[in-house]
Amino acid sequence: MSQVKLKIAIQKSGRLYDDSIKLLNECGIELRNVKDRLKTESDNFPMEIFFLRDDDIPQYVEDGVADIGIVGENVLFEKNKKVEIVEKLGFSKCRLSIAVPRNETYDGPAYLQGKRIATSYPFLVNQFLEKEGIQAEIHEISGSVEIAPGIGLADVVADLVSSGSTLFMNGLKEVAAILQSQAVLIRNSGMDEVKLQILNKLLFRISAVKKSKRNKYVLLNAPNDRLDQIIAQLPGMKSPTVLPLAETGWSSVHSVINEDEFWDKIEALKAAGAQGILVVPIEKMIV
Ligand code: ATP
Ligand code: ZN
To answer: pLDDT confidence of 99, banded at 50, 70, 90?
Structure first.
């Protein structure tokens, strides 16, 4: 009997590719030689990997050709397929925004009335226009949308933006965001029990990787008479570890600090008498 494998669709090449492969690797999933192939598999995890254009991924997952996939929310919502989002992955962040020629004054969605809008996202733009009660002409183009106003093809664009530099170079300015987007893990809605179990194993690993990125391991030296004040600043996973140093009167304190409170904590620890503070990245974190 052949072993059941979870089939994942990821982008063949482009902005999602590197981070998708990196995520799988960080989850300890080794892929067989991935160069120039349509699909590959892992030798140490029951997974088969399909390399596709990102636009095709929602359809493949809806049809069950792939069980799960990694795709941007922008593409997912534009394609409007029946799949489930299982996890936000935190990379490939961007937004779908309206941009107008730099010398124009945009005073809200009413500005778009009667305008020609170039975009690769007709569904999402249409949804936005309907919600705002605006009538405009959508020109669907598949690439280099930002040049459309310059060549007279459209008045404004609705395009993906991360830094805004591409818009700037084309004489445009971003005026309104229609959608905030990041990469997400999606799944087919009719997966069987065996595949769900493999998916849960993957999700457990993803969550450990994500947690480890939000936390740092901190080691510091503390004079014993300041230990109470120092420990009060540190939650740790249960409570901090305290070990005696060779030098009498001193201890080494180990703990985990969340990135949201990182600098506040470090300052408070210094003020409380901590010395020789070391901050170390965490590779995996299982709580
Ligand atoms: P494919 O050949 O797979 O169709 P593509 O050209 O459509 O590739 P990419 O440019 O590689 O797609 O972008 C893939 C995804 O990366 C986008 O759909 C979006 O989710 C994300 N992304 C993040 N930042 C940006 C950005 N500044 N511009 C475009 N996409 C971005
Ligand atoms: Zn694409």
So the answer is: very high
18, 160, 172: residue to mutate for ligand 1 pocket, most atoms within 8 A of CB: 160
258 and 266 in contact (C-beta within 8 Å)? no
Nearest CA to ligand 1 atom 4: 53
Closest ligand 1 atom to residue 74 Cα is: 20
pLDDT in tens, 247-270: 999 999 999 999 888 899 999 999
Which comes out higher in pLDDT, residue 236 or 57? 57
Indicate which residue's Cα is closest to atom 22 of ligand 1: 92
Domain 6-92+182-212 has CATH 3.40.190.10: yes
Which class for 255: exposed (0-12), middle (13-18), buried (19 or more C-beta within 10 A)?
buried
* Equal CATH topology for 6-92+182-212 and 94-181: yes
C-alpha of residue 183 to centroid of ligand 1, in Å: 10
Q: Is 70 helix (H, G, I), strand (E, B) or coil?
A: strand
